[in-house]
Automatic annotation (TrEMBL):
Annotated Pfam families: THAP (PF05485)
Source organism of the structure: Popillia japonica
GO MF assignments: DNA binding; zinc ion binding
InterPro entries xrefs: THAP_Znf
Keyword Zinc-finger: yes
Protein name in the entry: THAP domain
Keywords: DNA-binding, Metal-binding, Zinc, Zinc-finger
Domain THAP-type: 12-67
Signal peptide: none
Length: 74
């Protein structure tokens, strides 16, 4: 049996103290260096600069509440 909206699809948001528990998650826009830098800057976690693009894309999730629409990718 499958339950829609199962919590297995809710990835942990990388932003410290994030309150966006139920909003959509976004993967890092690793194809766009400029937007990628904006995200890392906004997240304020310099550690992410040392991640490879693949690691960012596969392991880092951010909920949509932290970004202006222009910075989102779909
Ligand atoms: Zn968040």
């Amino acid at each position: 049996m499958h339950v829609a909206g199962s919590s297995q699809y809710i990835k942990k948001c990388i932003v410290a103290n994030s309150k966006g528990e139920t909003s959509s998650r976004y993967r890092f826009p690793v194809k766009n260096e400029q937007i990628k830098k904006i995200w890392i800057d906004r997240i304020n976690n310099d550690e992410l600069f040392h991640y490879s693009d693949q690691r960012l894309y596969n392991t880092v999730f951010v909920c949509g509440v932290h970004f202006l629409p222009v910075c989102k990718t779909t």
